[in-house]
Amino acid sequence: MSSSLPQHCPSPRELDDLELLLSGALAPRTRFDDPRDADALVTLDLPEELQGRAVELVDPEGMPLARLEADGSLVALTHAQYGPFRRLHLSPAQARSSYPGRSWIPVDDALTTEEIGRLRHRGALVLLALTGAGTPRLSPVALVRATLAAAAELPDAVVVAVPLASHGDPAADARLRERVVAAYAGGDAVWPIPPRAEEPTLTDFPAGVAAVVRRDRPAPAEQGLVLFFTGLSGSGKSTLARALMDRILEQGQRTVTSLDGDVVRRNLSAGLSFSKADRETNIRRIGWVAAEIARHGGLAVCSPIAPFAETRTEVREMVESAGGAFFLVHVATPVEECERRDRKGLYAKARRGEIPEFTGISSPYEAPDDASVVVDTTGRSVEDALDDVIDALAESGLLDVRTSGSRSRVEPFPVAAAPAPAAPSLFADPTPSRRGARAADRLSVIFVCTANVCRSPFMELTAQSIVGDAVEFASIGTDAKVGRSMDAVISEFLPQGVTNGHFRAAAVSEDAVDAADLILTAEASHADHLVERHPRAFRKIFTLAQWAETVQGSDLRGRELIEWAGQYRVPRAPEHDITDPYKRGRERAQVAAQRITSLLQAGIPPLTRD
Ligand SMILES: Nc1ncnc2c1ncn2[C@@H]1O[C@H](COP(=O)(O)OS(=O)(=O)O)[C@@H](OP(=O)(O)O)[C@H]1O
Ligand SMILES: Nc1ncnc2c1ncn2[C@@H]1O[C@H](COP(=O)(O)OP(=O)(O)O)[C@@H](O)[C@H]1O
């Protein structure tokens, strides 16, 4: 479509507002507010030269969406046609005629099992997914997917998506939301979701919703990651970046793309000079590629000089808006030391005036004030300087490559190994249910609590009732009352038909830990106890709740799942602990039994092959 009008591409937030204005969702408003009005809600920031003129508003691909007349009125040109779930973007008029007489539920986060349960008796519903730029908890597309997954749990619910963007002001956002929801509902009932007392965890969602949330908010170790080294020429960026990449590749958890300054300049940025504008273009290109790598969960290691703070910030924003984490390493070796090294003879040439605009000599370097770690390599070995980076990375929770380092080598956990030999005597006090030789291809899972009379036997027997003999289960205690039978109180809550007659408590032993494929504990303290004494087993030790949360949303099964979870576990959290109900009354035992049962229902079936 050709037009002699000047074109302007609004920001993502403004594009969302434009869609609401054009669809009638903000009626009676039909145009952007004048930013000078005290009650202005939806505003459009036009460059000065376009103000007061007729302008064509286009999307980022240049598709004309609307004409903004000089008097501020809007004329719709084309509907936005692309974008995920476009078909669910209905105007209020379309939605009311498609779904008359339904109740309306505004949704701005993934719905929990409890919230969905409360909606079950509300009859026919429209879940109004309030997506839009700046949705704080989930990406817009994940919010729609999570809402569709919630609708699938309800007897009669449909989903309509509305691009309600956040304007950064809670009061203004609340007013806008009220207006938009009223426009959709017309006179029909609206049932808001009550505010939550606390943030839900993954186990609070039904499996379908949890899978969406998990994928959209990956644990730090699963997130895309950009490691960005900045510093003067000769400071040690490439040397440290290369050494770090070697470490990452040795560990084998992730693949790496290198975007080294010199290499990029020979390829992606061939032909660019060292003027300020060309350096900015060079860094933006690196940032763009790195952000795309991060968008797909990959890891990019960049090592250009990147002398300008503003361009580095742009790269950070590109990476973060692609869902990646940005880790900035300032290699702060002073210019005197870089010049002393002068590996490529460039400083000498720059001093002689043969290279213009040389960073640190005749062109500025703006030291970052937002670096995740600062390393001066002067007088230090590469290994030593690298350790600073590796330690800071591990502390950030983004990537831990300390385990394959020279200082603390830990043998990798041998998963999916060749068929295991028949397990040696697993327990100090073998019982009939545990004594038989372990089938080579069956997984062996051990539950651990303190005395092995209450929580862990409950886990063992309940898990067995969920998947039967497909998996071999046992339980042990860190401070076991060896030979005792199972606590009668919690036994009352065992699944129907499950008896505890054969059960006798057993203690942790080296053999038991070695032979298990997976060890699930009631509390973090039990896991710590085991890891302290059996450090080689650390990858297969989880708290039960941590395991259940980690495996939500993974499509893997059996040994592959255990191997994956060993690398990408969710961090431990205090609320994961299942506190000890032993001798604390029937009610506490029931609460523990119910929690264990639902965690097992989430975490144990994926261990079977099909
Ligand atoms: N004028 C000038 N200033 C700085 N550096 C120069 C210049 N001319 C060439 N070189 C060589 O180019 C490498 C830096 O390129 P970068 O792409 O990392 O620079 S920038 O980020 O675009 O500023 C840099 O490589 P490193 O030493 O690896 O940093 C230099 O070898
Ligand atoms: N601790 C250290 N860390 C990194 N490089 C060091 C260290 N000590 C000395 N060097 C030397 O400094 C030079 C750094 O060069 P390089 O890594 O190419 O820097 P840049 O990529 O920042 O231009 C190399 O010759 C390297 O051997």
Automatic annotation (TrEMBL):
ATP binds at G231, L232, S233, G234, S235, G236, K237, S238. It is an enzyme of class 2 (transferase). Catalyzes the synthesis of activated sulfate. Keywords: ATP-binding, Kinase, Nucleotide-binding, Phosphoprotein, Transferase. Residues 443-610 form the Phosphotyrosine protein phosphatase I domain. Belongs to the APS kinase family. It holds the Pfam family LMWPc. Its EC number is 2.7.1.25. The lineage of its organism: Bacteria, Bacillati, Actinomycetota, Actinomycetes, Propionibacteriales. Residues 223-477 form the AAA+ ATPase domain. The keyword ATP-binding applies. InterPro entries: AAA+_ATPase, APS, APS_kinase_dom, P-loop_NTPase, Ptyr_pPase, Ptyr_pPase_sf, Sulf_AdTrans/APS_kinase. Pathway: Sulfur metabolism; hydrogen sulfide biosynthesis; sulfite from sulfate: step 2/3. It catalyses: adenosine 5'-phosphosulfate + ATP = 3'-phosphoadenylyl sulfate + ADP + H(+). SUPFAM superfamilies: P-loop containing nucleoside triphosphate hydrolases, Phosphotyrosine protein phosphatases I. This is Adenylyl-sulfate kinase.
